[in-house]
Amino acid sequence: MENSRSVSILFFVHTVVLSIVSINCKDNNNLVTNQAALFVFGDSLFDAGNNNYIDTFSRFKSNIWPYAQTTFKSPTGRISDGRLIPDFIAEYAWLPLIPPNLQPSNGHNQFTFGVNFASGGAGALVETFPGMVISLGAQLNNFKNVEKRLRSELGDSEAKRIISRAVYLFHIGGNDYVYPILFANSSTFKSSSKEKFSDFVLGNITAVIEEVYKVGGRKFGFLNIGAYDCAPASLIIDRTKIGSCFKPITDLINMHNKKLPNVLERLESDLSGFKYALHDYHTSLSERINNRLKYGFKEGKKACCGTGPLRGINTCGGRVWGLSQRYELCENVTEYLFFDSFHLTEKAHRQIAELIWSGPSNVTGPYNLKALFELK
Ligand SMILES: *[C@@H]1O[C@H](CO)[C@@H](O)[C@H](O)[C@H]1NC(C)=O
Ligand SMILES: *[C@@H]1O[C@H](CO)[C@@H](O)[C@H](O)[C@H]1NC(C)=O
Ligand SMILES: *[C@@H]1O[C@H](CO)[C@@H](O)[C@H](O)[C@H]1NC(C)=O
Ligand SMILES: *[C@@H]1O[C@H](CO)[C@@H](O)[C@H](O)[C@H]1NC(C)=O
């Protein structure tokens, strides 16, 4: 409680300061803001509520208690007990919380500080949870619509300035590898080698980056894929080896993460003015799973919310089988790395966001996000 009160005060102060800043700017030369905006693309690590507004199964929505309860008064759709990585990045960049793209507009210019397009369950491939999520390609189309709206509301040159100074943050790909192994084998997966399949995933990510660049984006932030083969849900797949990471996913994630730096280096040399940050999320997450005490967690492998061994069965919130479904909820969420069987706690998000924001170049490089935001 103490904690959530200080957080609301922080938000309040933050909002007041921002209002003053934007009023000043408006008075000066009719600019809405001088802050670089933040546009967010990706999956459940980043979804701040878009899935609440799409027609999908309840298990893709986290608009239910106890999700988001640590920080927010009511559930927001964030798939954690509280804030997500982009919420912290926005705070460090002196931006307000970045609204989900599909959240109904509550006034003028709600998108000038940026927009969150991410969708829980999304992948880079259209075959990943088809029809249930907003795929990366659909997120790109939503971004293009926002850019059109900025142009019609603010004029071409102001819109161009916002787009080129903004930072574009991505976490995508994990679901493309988890989906065929655990849910359904797409024809693309069945007919490709693992090597070829990861080229498809990276090829589709590259195509989206190039499109954002064409629209005017220049500053990009990426997380490689986290160690989700070692999330509580994965640790219980093989009932004879509870607690071991799930190998078929490990291989795919490793292959992807090995290729991603080369893909980004190539983009940097092909696209003039393209600047990027790559955070080694795989290392920062595995570090915490394996050395939980060092990072202030009592539990690195057991989820706070869920059912069964390691609470690895994703029943949190009772959304899968209805509210009558029983699930366990830990007493003290700050002791946990994982909130539910696949998603981290706010405390973990804060630690990782700090590394993305100001980490040294062997953790986040060649730029970190702070440096990208400061670039003119
Ligand atoms: C898809 O095929 C792979 C082997 O090609 C197999 O390991 C996996 O279990 C299959 N996935 C599903 C959901 O049937
Ligand atoms: C994108 O993925 C599809 C499979 O969904 C694949 O056929 C296509 O070649 C990929 N595109 C690129 C540019 O790799
Ligand atoms: C919850 O856990 C944190 C970290 O381990 C600890 O500092 C705090 O005192 C605990 N809170 C309660 C109410 O037990
Ligand atoms: C990054 O470099 C610092 C020293 O410069 C070192 O202490 C740290 O362990 C390195 N981190 C990783 C993830 O390699």
TrEMBL record:
This is GDSL esterase/lipase 3-like. Belongs to the 'GDSL' lipolytic enzyme family. Gene3D superfamilies: SGNH hydrolase. Keywords: Signal. InterPro entries: GDSL, GLIP1-5/GLL25, Lipase_GDSL_AS, SGNH_hydro_sf, SGNH_plant_lipase-like. Residues 1-25 form the signal peptide. PROSITE patterns: LIPASE_GDSL_SER. CDD domains: SGNH_plant_lipase_like.
